[in-house]
Design a protein that fits this description.
This protein has 3 helices and 48 strands. By secondary structure, it is mainly beta. The chain folds into 3 domains: about 120 residues, Sandwich (Immunoglobulin-like), CATH 2.60.40; about 190 residues, no CATH class; about 240 residues. The protein has a 12-stranded parallel β-sheet, with no helix packed on it. Strand 6 and strand 7 form a beta hairpin. The chain is globular, with a radius of gyration of 23 Å. The two termini are about 25 Å apart.
Length: about 600
């Protein structure tokens, strides 16, 4: 199953969650390939003897026992030597065995198969071009049916922090939910306690809980916790005022869901699933890039100030393999986020979400920096099918140090740099710093909208840039079939600044703005603006049959090879295919 069908009926799965593995196998530096699954994807790793950038590693796959093999995107070969992976963090301290483990990604084939069915065993074949070398392996995607061994009833109403500290197992999770006779559970600590929930356990499900008023974080996930499912929760009203500026701005990184490791060189927080949650209205606001922040600049000498304030989800140097899907995260004009989803360390070999993580089907609004911040290793991280609006940046990737990172079929609405700045920011902010960066990034079938002043008032427009170097140089990006529709022809659909940019490949995109690159690109690109179908419903952006870009894309194995018509449509929506859906009700059957 490939991408177009993946974004339609294939997501109409059961509401309950997953049977997660106790721990994902550590990727081996041996010659045998290995795999790391999620619900709909499998990440692949192969330190193949004789591997090289000039020798393609072809991939095909099938559900075990079926007859038909399907082609996937070839794995990317990372030709960098071990010296590129001698540090995990910028500190440069002795990182010993942890850095040695990172070096196994040197001269390795890596990549992902996407659009798979949950709870299915797949046969996978890898074959090195120009050789007779091939390998087969099997991997099973996560099931969406979770076995419950025990149920713990949360109080119907409480003003105290509840500690989730009873662990289950892969064979039977512990479910924390409302009492059966109450039908609801509300924990409102009313700014008197730091957290609504503390999570100090593994193999647990937190379901259907309303969380309000946390002084710091609504859900705090502590080191050592793993296989935690947070679903169908309503979270609001968390966070502290900034200690220098009172209640005007919120404390940076106070979050609805916050996870960090006490031992970042040996992380154990893994497989956090946040799905179908409503996260909204933190207690305090975030400054935009154009609003003065005393903490950032006590003497007020700068002209812009990085946003600082609350976030929806923050992950710091965890072990990764998370899934963030089908959530609604929003606020209002007086309670903006810094990033909606993010964390750290940004320039590192770890970061947020680190590795083998999927972010999809979310509706994200109202932040002054990044809607999705995926920065650090970004090793087999996949971001697709999200609707992002009222942010300064849609997706931030400064840096992608290991890779590959996949960004496809996302829709970006309105963008603004500050309340007094009507100009929009970029869809993708890439970059490198302190020796971190250079991993491959794939950017396929994304759509930038230009809603116009009537949609959100005179100060709101769409993105001012498509691909940009706002975080540093653009390295190793492959862009295909995107609609880079920016504010005006004077703005940049693709912008490479300076001499650092290299190893980029842009083609088959539609763009109305300038494309400024170090070498000629977009030889088969289309200089035009899209025309959308008059029959589109809300949050649908199918191209009109007569629009530029209709049937004009290039075929990408496993991402669009079941296109409808004479060729794939450029942009996020494929005409005559099921529409993308976003938020808590996305891809739910009528029986849910």
């Amino acid at each position: 199953m490939n991408n177009i069908s993946l974004l339609g009926p294939a997501f109409r799965a059961a509401y309950s969650c997953v049977v997660l593995l106790s721990f994902v196998p550590v990727v081996s530096s041996a010659a045998e390939p290995s795999a790391v699954p999620t619900f709909h994807c499998i990440g692949l790793y192969w330190n193949a003897e004789g591997g090289s950038a000039s020798r393609e590693c072809r991939v095909r796959y099938r559900a075990k026992g079926s007859g038909r093999w399907r082609e996937a995107l070839p794995l990317w070969f990372d030709e960098r030597g071990p010296e590129a992976f001698v540090r995990i963090f910028r500190s440069g301290r002795d990182e010993g065995p942890a850095a040695e483990r990172l070096q196994q990604y040197s001269r390795q084939y890596r990549g992902s198969i996407v659009g798979l069915r949950p709870g299915t065993n797949y046969e996978i074949e890898l074959q090195l071009a120009q050789t007779e070398r091939s390998e087969r392996l099997e991997a099973e995607t996560w099931s969406e049916d979770i076995p419950i061994a025990e149920t713990v009833s949360l109080p119907a109403e409480s003003g105290r922090t509840f500690v989730v500290d009873k662990s289950g197992s892969a064979e039977g999770y512990v479910l924390y939910t409302h009492p059966p006779d109450a039908g609801a559970s509300t924990i409102d600590v009313a700014d008197r306690r730091d957290y609504c929930l503390e999570v100090r356990a593994g193999f647990v499900v937190i379901r259907g809980v309303t969380l309000k008023g946390a002084r710091v974080h609504a859900i705090r996930i502590f080191g050592g916790s793993h296989d935690v499912v947070i679903e169908d929760c309503d979270i609001s009203g968390w966070g502290r005022p900034d200690e220098l500026e009172g209640k005007k701005w919120g404390r940076n990184m106070d979050s609805a869901v916050y996870a960090s490791e006490g031992e970042p060189l040996r992380p154990k927080i893994a497989r956090i699933v946040v799905q179908r949650c409503r996260i909204h209205h933190p207690r305090y606001d975030t400054n935009s890039w154009s609003e003065y922040r005393q903490r950032m600049d006590p003497k007020k000498v700068a002209k812009s100030w990085h946003p600082m304030g609350p976030q929806a989800i923050s992950l710091f140097n965890t072990a990764g393999n998370h899934v963030i899907r089908y959530n609604d995260m929003w606020s209002d004009a007086d309670h903006y986020y810094n990033d909606i989803f993010g964390g750290g360390s940004n320039f590192s070999g770890a970061g947020s979400p680190n590795r083998d993580t999927d972010i999809y089907g979310n509706r994200l609004r109202h932040c002054w920096d990044d809607g999705i911040e995926a920065e650090g290793a970004n090793r087999n991280v996949r971001i697709w099918g999200n609707y992002i609006s009222e942010t300064m940046v849609a997706v931030a990737t400064a840096a992608t140090h290991v890779g590959p990172l996949y960004i496809w079929r996302n829709v970006y609405g309105v963008s603004r740099r500050g309340p007094d700045k009507p100009s929009g920011g970029p869809f993708l902010k890439a970059g490198l710093n302190s020796g971190f960066g250079g991993g491959r990034t794939y950017v396929f079938h994304n759509t930038l909208l230009q809603p116009g002043p009537d949609e959100q008032g005179p100060a709101w427009r769409g993105a001012g840039l498509g691909l940009s170097e706002w975080g540093g140089g653009l390295l190793n990006h492959l862009s295909r079939n995107n609609i880079w529709h920016v504010l005006s022809e004077r703005d940049y659909s693709i912008q490479e600044r300076g001499k650092v940019a290299r190893d980029n490949d842009y083609d088959y995109d539609m763009f109305n703005g300038r494309v400024v690159t170090r070498k000629p690109q977009e030889k088969r690109g289309l200089k035009a603006s899209p025309l959308y179908d008059a029959g589109n419903k809300a949050a649908q952006f199918f191209l009109s049959p007569g629009s530029p870009g209709h049937d004009a894309g290039v075929v990408i194995p496993n991402f669009n090879d079941d296109y409808r018509g004479e060729g794939p449509d450029i942009g996020a929506f494929e005409a005559a295919a099921p529409p993308l859906e976003f938020g808590c009700q996305a891809y739910r059957s009528t029986d849910d």
